[in-house]
Amino acid sequence: MSRPIFVTVPHGNHVAQPIFFLESNNMTTDNMKEEIRQYILAEFLPGEKSANLQDDTPLRTSGILDSVATLRLVTFVEERFGIQVEAHEASVENFDSINSIAAFIESKKTGAS
């Protein structure tokens, strides 16, 4: 049975926002994408509507994420999903959309099995 995990994500001068997570071993791709979306919204796009951040919205090539924001996102992905991201893997190819991030995480988890 899946247990919820609650974390509080501080962002800038704003009040920290609680985010609900499922345990990563029971997570579907859609759950994973939603957690990534909520993290990006809380950290980098506060006040933006969730519907405006689609799975294929460019994050790095559009300027939503700069290099520092990308490092923060990589840290979140490593800690949340229990993977290690090598420096060369934090590329635009793997971190330019929610779709590409989720596919990258799944490939790392499959490769680690």
Can you put this structure into words, describing what you see?
The chain has one domain: Non-ribosomal Peptide Synthetase Peptidyl Carrier Protein, Chain A. The protein is 44% helix and 15% strand. The protein is built from four helices and two strands. It has helices spanning 29-44, 67-81, 92-95, 98-112; strands spanning 4-11, 14-22. Strand 1 and strand 2 form a beta hairpin. Helix 1 packs across helix 2 and helix 1 (29-44) packs across helix 4 (98-112). The chain is globular, with a radius of gyration of 13 Å. The two termini are 21 Å apart. The relative contact order is 0.14.
In the sheet with the most strands, the strands line up as 1-2
Q: Any idea what the CATH architecture is?
A: Orthogonal Bundle
Number of strands: 2
Shape: globular
Instruction: Please report the number of helical segments.
Output: 4
Helix/strand-derived category reads alpha+beta
> What's the pLDDT, averaged over the residues?
84
